[in-house]
Amino acid sequence: TSTTSPPSTPSHSLPPADADEWFAQFRSDPELATTVSDQCPDRATLAAVYDVPIYAADGQAMPFGSIYDPAYALHRRQLVLFVRHFYCGACQAYLQALSQSITKEDYFAIPTPTSIIVIGCGQPDLIPQYKKFTGCPFPIYADPTRQLFKKLGMIVTLNIGGERPDYMKDIGVSNWAAGQFKTIKKSLKDEDGIRKRDILRGGHPLQIGGEFLFDEGEVVWCHRMGNMRNHTEVRQLRKLLELEVE
């Protein structure tokens, strides 16, 4: 591990009261994309991302490859979930649904031992608050430079998606957008919550993620989000992990 300080998130002016105005600042982003593939990364791609640092909540860095390399990995398989910025209500709902569905008993009952790992694109010192928001029991790391997101083919998009996923069945678009700002405001008032400067440090608001299943060091299945509400449904992950039979 290393104590190297994590890179800072590029600065943008503080979010105004109108969320649309804030997001408008990112709409000319040259990285914006409309298409995405679910082709698994090949060995050359995995070699290119092996040494990309990911950061724990305390700022300790470790190479991304160490979580799936059979020489170091805790289990044979790893399900790595890449989430959006740390204030995204959709991803928070996703992790809440996942955590409620895959209990500790389920986790240890997975037929092929599998680690579940979450990686976000904000600053690592926000991870404790993110765990508090989501109740997620799985390890969470940060990739504030978004190198992994980019090199593994995850995109930046304005697309919020036309279909509400099951993990957001009780959350409409307007409530989702408003909820993110309510979460921030509530945390600002919390003695152990975020500070005003942290509002900008949650990660790129248009970056979307995906899910990658590693088996003995290679990606055997993946799904890259096509819009902001397009994580693989929890029931599908349960089937993927062999917790449910077709």
Task: Characterize this entry briefly.
With 246 residues, the protein is of the alpha/beta class.
Textual characterization of the structure:
The protein is built from eight helices and seven strands, in the order H-H-E-E-E-H-H-E-H-E-H-H-E-E-H. It is an alpha/beta fold and 246 residues long. The protein has one domain (19-240): Glutaredoxin (3-Layer(aba) Sandwich). Strand 1 and strand 2 (61-63) form a beta hairpin.
End-to-end Cα distance: 41 Å
Q: Which blocks of ≥5 consecutive residues have pLDDT under 50?
A: 10-18
Total number of helices = 8
- Biggest sheet descriptor: 5 strands, mixed
Number of strands: 7
| CATH level 3 topology | Glutaredoxin
H/E series, N to C? HHEEEHHEHEHHEEH
Outline: globular
Average per-residue pLDDT, rounded, comes to: 82
What is the count of distinct domains? 1
Task: Tell me the name of the CATH class.
Answer: Alpha Beta
Helix content: 25-40%
Structural class category: alpha/beta
Side by side, the strands of the main sheet go 5-4-3-6-7
- The second-level CATH architecture is 3-Layer(aba) Sandwich
- What is the fourth-level CATH superfamily? Glutaredoxin
- In what range is the share of β-strand residues? 5-15%
Task: Give Rg in angstroms.
Answer: 17 Å
